[in-house]
Amino acid sequence: FAEANKIVIKKYPNPRPYNTESSSYITLDDLFQLIKAGHNVRVVDAKTQEDLTSATLTQVLLEQEIKGCPLLPTEFLQMIIRLYDHPASAQWQQALQFLMDQWNSVIAQSGSLPLNMLEWPQLGAMPVDFRKSMQAMQEFFTDMHNSAIKNSQKK
Fold first, then answer.
1. Which pLDDT tens digit goes with each residue over 112-127?
2. Greater pLDDT, 116 or 81
3. Quick one: which of 14, 72, 106, 132 is 20 to 30 A from 25 by CA?
4. Which is it for the CA torsion 96, 100, 103, 109, positive or negative?
5. b vs e for 107-136, b when ≥16 Cβ sit within 10 Å of the residue's Cβ?
6. What's the pLDDT at 141?
7. Residue scoring higher pLDDT (109 or 61)
8. Strand 6-11 to strand 40-45: parallel, antiparallel, or no bridges (unpaired)?
9. pLDDT at 38 over 90
10. Residue 26 neighbours by CB distance under 10 Å
11. Strand order through the sheet with 24-25
């Protein structure tokens, strides 16, 4: 997504993020709702302009997990932790970025996301090994989707 389309959120020494678009302090739950509504954000340190987006969005995910809305399987979280400082971490990040780019491309082309990732037209040109990996990812995302539906029905 283009940088111009992002809402800039500033982090000051106080604990609450500041939404520069609405000129107001917001909570992590407000940030969660902004993103769910389709907005893209960039979080920066108000003083140094350091990019804090990843760390802040991780906090947003943590808040949701604490609220009892788990989305990421424990095994996945443990795998991510094991990848820190691992030689394969750069490749993992590239693979996830590729997947997200494909995800966004499918949504842009069709207006919605097919739940079956194997129906994505972009996968036809991919090597067989990649398609097998995507099949495993399909199972992973299907489980995530089913978990999200089950959790939303509890509310």
1. 655 565 565 555 555 5
2. 81
3. 72
4. negative
5. eeeeeeeeeebeebeebeeeeeeeeeebee
6. 61
7. 61
8. parallel
9. no
10. 16
11. 24-25, 17-19, 6-11, 40-45
Is 8's pLDDT higher than 90? yes
Report residue 126 as tokens: 């991919």
Distance CA 50, CA 56 (A): 12
Cβ-defined contacts of 17-24 (< 8 Å, 24+): 17/43, 17/56, 18/46
User: In what helix (H) or strand (E) does residue 18 lie, and over which residues does it extend?
Assistant: strand 17-19
Which residue carries 């106080």 as its tokens?
A: 14
Return phi, psi of residue 49, to 5°. 65, 15
